[in-house]
Design goal:
CATH superfamily of the largest domain in chain B: P-loop containing nucleotide triphosphate hydrolases
Strand order of the largest sheet of chain A: 10-9-8-11-12
Largest sheet of chain A: 5 strands, parallel
Number of helices of chain B: 12
Number of domains of chain A: 4
CATH superfamily of the largest domain in chain A: Nitrogenase molybdenum iron protein domain
Number of strands of chain A: 12
Distance between the termini of chain A: 61 Å
Shape of chain B: globular
Strand content of chain A: 5-15%
Largest interface: A-B, 12 and 14 residues
CATH topology of the largest domain in chain B: Rossmann fold
Shape of chain A: globular
Radius of gyration of chain B: 19 Å
Oligomer: heterodimer
Number of domains of chain B: 2
Number of helices of chain A: 20
Radius of gyration of chain A: 25 Å
Chain lengths: ~475, ~290
């Protein structure tokens, strides 16, 4: 029997596929689904993850299938939609995204695609349906399907580039900081002379898809991305490096670059110079805040909620920079029961926390946070209620985030980590300020009362009043 | 839901077992007895009512739905033998789309068109295709559309297997207002052990036989004339068989929720009969002894 999930934060496979392809410049998605399947994704993501792509939401070409397309099949409607889309929407590649409905009816989407390809139009399809999995699954599978067929429908030069790497694992719109994180990893790799195919956002695009087959290496951050990297490995013999998470400090950047250096020949002088600069950058800022960290933020108990890769990344920063004790790591990835990834992060988590939970059910998440006695939560906007109830501050860093507009900010690499550290410290200090104000206000209300003891007779307030009394003497109120 | 007008009867059975022939003859016999009858073919092949309407062309409900025009009852129905109102749900091209959803949409549309209020039938027969392969084909026995179902079966294992599947569907839906079973129409009965097999099956599943229809040249001949036996050979013994069956179905109020056999139970039961009929055919034992 299925369980009820409160506040689900993962869309379906169609949504994952859609948010993936719509963030590749030059690619036009064509959704073969009921009217609404694409718009739901837009409504969920456009205000939470840094705006929306050119072909998203109401602008997505789609078949808007109706009952008659279910009964009689929707393939001819799809044919019409693909042809019309090609006529009126400029695109370099058109990707047909299937839905639950067309999969159940059994529409022959493949045949429609072949028919259009025979007319020399650049069209590929993916046969995953929404019910096949969550958004993460959609990301992996649509990329894998694109790589399986794109080189047959679109002419691109085959010219191996020994300096080129493919980057997988940063899921557009699923990581609220996906744009900044992509830019940051590109910056790091370019810093040591490596060209990166990042596929998405302003620094990616269809050219990266074209060139993916020419890369010397694929790097997968986290578990999501194994599949497209595997396809490229099988088709074009491109080796794969997999890391548990994006790097968050100079040392991790060094480890990554050293690992890449085993496959790609790098100039050691350039590498050393870059890493020295990264270390200097990091040391400068962490040095500047050391006193503040000690005064306000050292050694807090922290609960982290988010996708596995983000939890590892943010957990490492909290632990390394703030000496935090990670009392709960809650992984919200939409994992299937027959999980098929090779990545095993048991050892990685062992170095961060012993309290790892896998759930995206808000009730479970709230219970775990409550029981963890955390003093700080790093999570999504969905954790606002539990943080308020527990009276602890929240740093919004995982999907979804309603209260920030995130564009090119990042939470990875040396620069992203410094941004996150600044955010962490600000949140803690802000929380201190608010709590102090609360105490002052309470204190003001107490003025005019006869004695402290009268109030302290109220159960549960003794400790608080002692604190206020201490504070009052300090501040000479 | 408003009070149902007329008795609504669904007739199921394995493909090719004689559902449409049986249903059409029941409809013809009921019409001959003076009742107002509607027969709705719930099969994409849309050939359920052929023998009632002399093979004349009849646009199906779903063909009309596909056109997207406003649909009137007159467009999708025609009166056949004895004034039986013939309707075919129709469906998609084989291998495309979802016929189950089509049945659902067609039945809903007929209700929206106030078919029963307009025609005021005494009996409505739904001739539903083949096996209950998915939810769509169970529509006529769900949601109180019909209150009774009959299954046409021969003594062949696959026909009884399909009957057992229908029993499973009835068993599932009856507690929430779905149809109950009126009985099994034993069709294509030949001399020998065939009756006994069907009788044993109904005994095992807590159901009953609604009537026996023997294999007869009259049926085949009438079909070739594009007519029911009631119309083509009204004085034949076969016509009387259908009249008796129609009378039983019209009057029967002994409706049950069947106890379908489990997969392995059904297999064991069939294997046991396999051994018995081998003995009969090879002359080791007589029919009476084997049973």
């Amino acid at each position: 029997m299925a369980d009820i999930i409160k506040n689900p934060r993962n869309g379906c496979a169609l949504h994952g596929a859609l948010q993936t392809v719509q963030e590749i410049n030059g690619v036009v998605p064509v959704v073969h689904a009921n009217a609404g399947c694409g718009v739901i994704n837009y409504l969920a993501n456009s205000k939470t993850t840094g705006g929306s792509a050119r072909f998203s939401g109401y602008s997505i070409p789609g078949t808007a299938a109706q009952e008659r397309h279910v009964i009689f099949g929707g393939a001819s409607r799809l044919r019409e939609q693909i042809k019309n889309t090609i006529k009126v929407v400029d695109g370099v590649l058109y990707v047909i995204l299937n839905s639950c409905e067309s999969a159940m009816v059994g529409d022959d989407v493949d045949a429609m695609t072949r028919e259009i390809v025979e007319q020399h139009e650049p069209v590929v399809d993916t046969l995953i349906a929404g019910f096949n999995g969550g958004a993460h699954f959609g990301y992996e599978h649509v990329l894998a399907d694109v790589f399986k067929s794109v080189y047959d429908v679109r002419l691109s030069e085959t010219n191996k580039n020994s300096n080129l790497v493919n980057i997988f694992g940063i899921i557009p719109e699923k990581d609220p900081y996906w744009q900044g994180n992509i830019e940051e990893i590109k910056r790091i790799l370019e810093g040591v002379g490596i060209k990166a195919n990042v596929f998405f956002g302003v620094t990616g695009g269809i050219e990266d898809i074209d060139n993916a087959k020419n890369a010397a290496l694929s790097i997968v951050f986290g578990r999501w991305g194994e599949l497209p990297a595997k396809v490229l490995n099988e088709k074009f013999d491109i080796p794969v490096i997999q890391k548990a998470a994006l790097p968050v400090n100079a040392l991790e950047e060094k480890e990554l670059i050293d690992e890449i250096g085993k496959v790609i020949s790098l100039e050691q002088d350039v590498v050393d110079e870059f890493l020295n600069k990264e270390l200097a950058y990091e040391s400068n800022y962490y040095g500047r805040i050391r006193d503040e960290v000690i005064e306000h933020a050292i050694g807090k108990s922290v609960a982290i909620v988010g996708d596995e890769e983000q939890v590892i990344r943010l957990g490492r920063i909290a632990k390394d920079v703030f000496g935090a004790k990670i009392v709960a790591a809650i992984l919200t990835d939409s994992l299937k029961k027959d999980e098929e990834h090779e990545l095993n992060n048991d050892e990685v988590f062992a170095s961060i926390t012993s309290s790892v939970y896998k759930t995206s059910d808000q009730k479970d998440i709230d219970d775990i946070i409550r029981q963890s006695k955390a003093e700080l939560v790093i999570g999504s906007s969905l954790e606002v209620n539990i943080a308020n109830k527990a009276g602890i501050p929240l740093i919004e860093a995982s999907y979804p985030i309603y209260h920030k507009s995130i564009l090119n900010q990042s939470t990875s690499g040396v620069r992203g980590a410094v941004e996150f550290v600044s955010n962490y410290l600000t949140t803690v200090k802000q929380d201190e300020k608010e709590k102090t104000e609360e105490l002052y206000n309470y204190l003001k209300q107490l003025k005019g009362q006869k004695t402290w003891q009268e109030h302290s007779s109220k159960r549960g307030q003794v400790k608080q009043l002692n604190l206020i009394s201490e504070l009052a003497s300090k501040e000479s109120i | 839901m408003a009070e149902k007008i007329g008795k609504h009867i669904a007739i199921y059975g394995k493909g090719g077992i004689g559902k449409s022939t049986t249903t059409s003859n029941i409809s013809a016999a009921l019409a001959e007895a003076g009742y107002r009858v509607i027969q709705i073919g719930c099969d994409p092949k849309s050939d359920s009512t052929n023998t009632l309407r002399g093979n004349n062309y009849l646009p199906t409900v779903l063909d009309s739905l596909r056109e997207g025009n406003k649909i009137h009852l007159d467009d999708i129905s025609v009166k056949g033998f004895g004034g039986v109102l013939c309707i075919e749900s129709g469906g998609p091209v084989p291998g495309v789309g979802c016929a189950g959803r089509g049945i659902n949409a067609a039945v809903n549309l007929l209700q929206e068109l106030n078919l029963f209020e307009e025609f005021k039938p005494d009996y409505v027969l739904y001739d539903v295709l083949g096996d209950v392969v998915c939810g769509g084909f169970a529509v006529p026995i769900r949601d109180g559309i019909t209150d009774r179902a009959y299954v046409v079966s021969s003594s062949d294992f696959m026909a009884l297997y399909a009957a057992n599947n229908l029993f499973k569907a009835i068993n599932k839906y009856a507690p929430t207002g779905g149809a109950k079973l009126g009985g099994v129409i034993a069709n294509s009965m030949k001399p020998g052990y065939h009756r006994e097999i069907v009788e044993d099956f109904v005994a095992k599943t807590g159901t009953s036989i609604a009537g026996y229809v023997n294999r007869s040249i009259d049926v085949q001949q009438s079909e070739l004339y594009g007519k029911t036996v009631i119309e083509a050979k009204p004085n034949s013994a076969q016509a009387d068989i259908y009249r008796n069956l129609a009378k039983h179905i019209a009057e029967n109020e002994n409706l049950v929720v069947p106890n379908p056999l489990g997969s392995s139970e059904l297999r064991d039961w069939a294997r046991n009969w396999g051994d018995r009929i081998y003995d009969i055919e090879s002359g080791v034992v007589g029919v009476a002894e084997a049973i």
